[in-house]
Amino acid sequence: MKRMNRARIVVLTVAICAGGIAAYLASGSDSAPPPAAPVAQLPTTDVLVAKNDIGLGQTVKPEDVQWQTWPTATASAAFIRRSERPDGATQVTGSIARAPFIQGEPIRDQKLVKADGSGFMAAILPSGMRAISTEISPETGAGGFILPNDRVDVLLTRRLKNPDQTAGAQDIVTSEVILVNVRVLAIDQAPKEKDGQNAVVGKTVTLELNSAQTQLLSSSRQAGTLSLALRSIADVKMSEITLDESAQKRDGVSIIRYGIPTQAAKAR
Fold first, then answer.
1. pLDDT tens across 162-182, in order?
2. For every residue of the chain, which 3-state class applies, written as one string?
3. Contact present, 243 and 250 (Cβ < 8 Å)
4. Domain boundary pick from 121, 140, 159
5. Are 171 and 159 in contact (CB under 8 A)?
6. Model confidence over 43-72: pLDDT tens digits?
7. Is the model more confident about 223 or about 234?
8. 27 in any annotated domain
9. Are residues 231 and 135 in the same domain?
10. Residue 54 in contact with residue 94, Cβ under 8 Å?
């Protein structure tokens, strides 16, 4: 009988101890975690961005732009900041996009122009430049693979009478580059690429030229056939073409710098 009582006491003692340990562990798990270390807040500013894609030549509407929080350290001086221009959204409304904006891209004045009632083409032309059109065909327009905003060379091909009067003498065909690295403004009346197409077969191309280049192109159209040679995108910043001396001496070609031709002498 005494042994049974002792066994019960031992079991009861073990149970009480286990319950106490469980209660202690439970109270510890309910305690709040230590507070997280404070995160440093970067200074920010509100920048005007494109709410939707804005295409080339599109007029900016109020619903096309919005203010967006931007880290001050990465906000360029060219961005429109609310702290400096609180009426920025109103100021750009009605402007024409000289270059496309993608959604979320900061609005910059350099890519906008105020039309002030003028047409799109007159609005996007840089100061001192002209838009002049000339006829092309798939054969003279790089097979239709020239798109607006591409860069091209303009070649003049002429057929001259052979001074040799003997029977069977063939006419002389000459070709020369008259304009180098000029920008295509439009194909027919399309000033921008449509639906991601990579070829436009048109009958008329509009080029961006200065005054001297305009006169040269106008006179060349009456002298022969004009062709366009598509340039690599890597040549966009190229402003003049240089030819090696051996080619100049061999062919007596015309060197075109900024649209002004100079004749290289033929080797004697």
1. 776 665 667 778 888 999 999
2. CHHHHHHHHHHHHHHHHHHHHHHHHHHHHCCCCCCCCCCCCCCEEEEEEECCCECCCCECCHHHEEEEEEEHHHCCCCECECCCCCCHHHHHCCCEECCCECCCCECEHHHEECCCCCCHHHHHCCCCCEEEEEECCCCCCHHHCCCCCCEEEEEEEEEECCCCCCCCCCCEEEEEEEEEEEEEEEECCECCCCCCCCCCCCCEEEEEECHHHHHHHHHHHCCCEEEEEECCHHHCCCCECCCCHHHHHHHCCEEEECCEEEECCCCC
3. no
4. 121
5. yes
6. 999 999 999 999 877 889 999 999 999 998
7. 223
8. no
9. yes
10. no
Same domain, 55 and 114: yes
Name the strand (E) or helix (H) holding 46: strand 44-50
> Rounded CA gap, 122 and 140, in Å?
27
Residue 109's domain comprises 44-121
Locate 188 and state its tokens.
């027919």
Domain end position, chosen among 62, 91, 121: 121
The pair of structure tokens assigned to 14 is 């073990």
In the chain, the number of structural domains is 2
- Quote the pTM value: 0.53
> Highest mean pLDDT range out of 117-131, 161-175, 254-268?
117-131
Based on the domain organization, do 49 and 146 belong to the same domain?
Answer: no
- pLDDT the model gives residue 46: 95
